[in-house]
Amino acid sequence: MQTLPIIAVVTRETRMENLKKRWVTTSNVKFQMQQAASHEEHRLKRKRRKSMSSMSEDNFDLMIAAASDALSDEDELREEDQIYDETLKSLLYEIDLGYPIKEIDRSFISNFDFQRCVAVIVFGQDGLVANVAKYVGDVPIIGVNPDPSRNDGILLPFEVKHSRNVLQRTIEQKSKTRDVTLGEVTTNNGQRMLAFNDFFMGCKTHTSARYTLEQNLATESQSSSGMIVSTGAGSTGWMSSVLNMAGQIGRMLDRSSTPERLIHRMDWSDRHLMWAVREPFISRHSSASMIGGLLDEGEELVVGSQMDGNGVIFSDGVEKDFIEFNSGSIAAFRVASQKAHLVVN
């Protein structure tokens, strides 16, 4: 018997829900936040007395108030939590088109069979879209912004009031989608991981990563703070920070060198990846001539671990979902054949 396609709605816990997991009740959350604010107020007052600051009393009081508000705004968390719950209820009402609807918390997305879905609605923040995109295959993704006043929503082009019409058009295959290139890494022991934004390879502690690097028959042994492999979607994130740092240092040493010269503009659909080594160290056993470049479709960047422990590979900043990458492990990074399909406005 053929099963009816379903609509998946991927959700996330609010900050208040996460804090209540730790401190059990809302009143405990409020108490802990007030304690933090009080501690910061006393710290700033002690610091002012020791430094004999010339800051006026009014300006100092304003600084104290700003620090206190930042650490104890329990009302902000309550409001955020309430808005999320209310808009989620509205969303579920709006998208009732007769198809079964399945709510999935983000902690379960890696175990859910998205191939049963006619569409996937992501209801959270931009990072949730990036995480979901790695698991849904060719199923179109509709990003709905639960709180436009708080979320940038670069990957969340729709509000709840748009959801019914957008979903209907998506089911009828009339909606416009934007294809996003994903990165892929596979290891010699059969593990595989995708990235929407970027991969990190290195040590999960603040120690140097040791490894061999090979691209297009050029090889090198390296010791560094790790390596970033970025897609077009991720090229304005972590990768841009690495390039900006290199550019600023270059500009200090050579005024003709600017960050803009180092940044390769990539579109989300570009079928290549960019990679960069972080803080490479030159020694008798390590070199730094291969510190970055482009990885075209069909090419591989092969990395062999020389770490005796704590070596990891993870994607999109999700550190707890990692591949162990210690001595004996070989990883190949490439452009993935799978793409993400984001429904756009």
Description:
It is built from eight helices and 16 strands. The chain has 345 residues and is of the alpha+beta class. It has two domains: 1-175, no CATH class; 182-337, Probable inorganic polyphosphate/atp-NAD kinase, domain 2 (Tumour Suppressor Smad4), CATH 2.60.200. A six-stranded antiparallel beta sheet has the order 6-5-16-13-8-9, with no helix packed on it. Strand 8 and strand 9 form a beta hairpin.
Question: How would you briefly describe this protein structure?
Answer:
By secondary structure, the protein is an alpha+beta fold. The chain has helices at 15-23, 26-51, 57-72, 74-94, 126-132, 163-171, 238-253, 259-262, and strands at residues 6-11, 101-105, 117-123, 141-144, 177-187, 192-195, 198-203, 209-215, 218-224, 227-230, 272-277, 292-296, 301-305, 311-315, 322-324, 330-343.
For the structure shown, list the relevant keywords.
single chain; alpha+beta; Tumour Suppressor Smad4; 2 domains; 6-stranded antiparallel beta sheet; 16 strands
SSE arrangement:
Elements: E1 6-11, H1 15-23, H2 26-51, H3 57-72, H4 74-94, E2 101-105, E3 117-123, H5 126-132, E4 141-144, H6 163-171, E5 177-187, E6 192-195, E7 198-203, E8 209-215, E9 218-224, E10 227-230, H7 238-253, H8 259-262, E11 272-277, E12 292-296, E13 301-305, E14 311-315, E15 322-324, E16 330-343
Parallel strand pairs: 1-2, 1-3, 3-4
Antiparallel strand pairs: 5-6, 5-16, 7-10, 7-14, 8-9, 8-13, 10-11, 11-12, 13-16, 14-15
Helix pairs in contact: 1-2, 2-3
